[in-house]
Amino acid sequence: MKEEWIKLKIGTMEVPVQIIREKRRSIRASMGKDNVIMRFPINLPAGEEVAHRERLTKWLEKQYEKKEGLFQRYQKADYQDGDTLRVGDRQYELRLRKEDRKTSAASLKQGQIVLRLNKNLDEQQFSKSIRTLLSRVVGADYLPEITQRVQALNEQYFQRPLKGVKLKYNHSNWGSCSNSGNINLSTRLLFAPPEVVDYVIIHELAHLVELNHSHRFWAEVAKAMPDYEKKEAWLKEFGAGCDF
Known about the structure:
There is one protein chain. By secondary structure, this protein is α/β, with parallel strands linked by helices. It has helices at residues 46-66, 123-158, 194-206, 215-224, 228-238; strands at 2-10, 13-22, 28-31, 36-41, 84-87, 90-99, 105-109, 112-118, 164-168, 175-177, 182-186. Strands 1-2-4-3 form a four-stranded mixed β-sheet, covered by helices on one side. Strands 5-6-8-7 form a four-stranded mixed β-sheet, with helices on one face. The protein has a three-stranded mixed β-sheet with strand order 9-11-10. A hairpin with a 4-residue loop joins strand 10 and strand 11. Helix 2 crosses helix 3 and helix 3 crosses helix 4 (215-224). The radius of gyration is 21 Å and the shape is globular. The chain starts with a strand and ends in a 6-residue tail after the last helix.
């Protein structure tokens, strides 16, 4: 397998694209959570690949015209030493250190997040490592407050046993609820307005009553938050921009 990274101008955005040449017969493109992926047969003639890349680029442009918000996930912050990160009502001063180390790490002290990063990472790995570490540190900082909010909403509307609350850097959903009473929420939710955060919490708490998406489940959500559909609409329109 051979790999190449490029950037494409799609609409007004610079979109990172991972080109993978491998043993395969088909040609395809997909929109991953961090970048677009284009896959080509490893022995495809150069002229044919260029033609297919142009075709796939046009496909991306059509997707952009249909829903620009889908591409917001690719507009990652280019963090620099001394930057300020604002999450909800809190702000953090960032200190980036590239060091000769095998693994990267981060710590928070008095509003300052120090990121110690493996200096040998490439650009994509460097960016991903920063976002993962920031999510971990900020999530830990917010966990007591979010846990209190989950407990308060549960007591107010559901009165069901809770086992625990976790904040994770999740892109596949905004939250989840296990049948054992664990509530998991995405750290990306911390960038959303408080009422939207409340909606996702209520949505997951309602699963303690109905572990499905039946009419009974949505009735439970509506009892706690009659205008929940407005919060869902906000997530659909602006959720892609909620990220580190």
